[in-house]
Design a protein that fits this description.
alpha/beta; six-stranded parallel β-sheet; three-stranded antiparallel β-sheet; Rossmann fold
Length: 230
C-alpha cells in the first residue's frame, strides 16, 4: 500500500480531494490532503514545498506526490528535501528551471484555454469570478457539485505565477501524467505534448473528463492512479 500526498492547484484547498481520498483509503492507502498557504501574500512554491515536507516529517514509508494544476509547480521541489517514490501530475502545469509561470504563459499561448481568465485584485492576490468557475473548473460536474466547489475557492497569491521557479533541475524519479479531454483550463493538447517532451512519458487521457476529475470522476481517477503507480 502507498502513502499519497495530494497537492491542490490555485484557489483550491485540501477539501477538493475528499472524494478521491474516499476511494483510496478503503483500499488501505494512506492519504494526506494539504492546504497550501495560498492566502499568504509571499508564499511561493518553495514555501508550498516546505508545507508538504513538514506534513511528512513523521512518514517513513514511500510517498507518492500528486499535484493538480498549479500543484505541479510544487511537487518537484519536495524531492530536493526528502525521498519521494513517484510524482503524479493531474492536469498539471510543469515548471521550467530559470522561468516563471508568467514567462511560460507569455511564450506559449497554447498552455491555457484562451477563454479562461482570472482577476488580478491589485493587492498581490488574484481570484476567480464565481460566475465563471463552474464553466471552467467543473464543466463535467453536476451543477450542485460545481456550486459547492466554487463556494470553497479562495484568493491566490500571485507569487507562484510571477516568481522564477526555485527548481534548478528536474528530479530523476518516475513520473506519470493524467489529463482530461474536456479540460477548459489546461489545454489537453498541451498537456499531452508537455508530458512527452518534458517528462519523457506517455500521458493518460481520461475521456469525457474536465479539469477536476477528483470531483467529477473520483472512482475512475482512482483506478487510473492505481494503474500507474510504480
Amino acid at each position: 500500500m502507498s502513502t499519497f500526498v495530494f497537492v491542490h492547484g490555485h484557489w483550491h484547498g485540501g477539501w477538493c480531494w475528499s472524494r478521491l481520498v474516499a476511494e483510496l483509503e478503503p483500499l488501505g492507502h494512506r492519504c494526506i490532503a494539504l492546504d497550501l498557504p495560498c492566502t499568504t501574500r509571499d508564499a511561493g512554491t518553495a514555501v508550498n514545498a516546505e508545507v508538504v515536507v513538514n506534513a511528512l516529517k513523521d512518514v517513513d514509508d514511500e510517498v507518492i506526490l500528486v499535484g493538480h494544476s498549479a500543484g505541479g509547480l510544487t511537487i518537484p521541489l519536495v524531492v530536493q528535501s526528502r525521498p519521494v517514490k513517484q510524482l503524479l501530475f493531474i492536469a498539471a502545469l510543469l515548471p521550467i528551471p530559470g522561468k516563471s509561470l508568467a514567462d511560460q504563459f507569455a511564450e506559449n499561448l497554447n498552455i491555457i484555454d484562451p477563454r479562461f481568465s482570472f482577476l488580478d485584485n491589485g493587492d498581490g492576490f488574484c481570484s476567480i469570478d464565481p460566475a465563471l468557475a463552474p464553466s471552467f473548473f467543473y464543466n463535467d460536474c453536476s451543477r450542485a457539485d460545481a456550486d459547492w466547489a466554487t463556494s470553497k475557492l479562495r484568493v491566490q497569491t500571485t507569487v507562484t505565477i510571477t516568481e522564477e521557479t526555485p527548481l534548478a533541475v528536474w528530479p530523476t524519479i518516475p513520473c506519470s501524467y493524467i489529463y482530461g479531454d474536456l479540460d477548459r483550463v489546461v489545454q489537453p493538447a498541451w498537456a499531452a505534448q508537455a508530458a512527452r517532451e518534458r517528462l519523457g512519458i506517455d500521458p493518460i487521457e481520461m475521456t469525457g473528463v474536465g479539469h477536476s476529475p477528483f470531483l467529477s470522476q473520483p472512482r475512475q481517477l482512482a483506478r487510473q492512479i492505481l494503474g500507474v503507480i510504480a
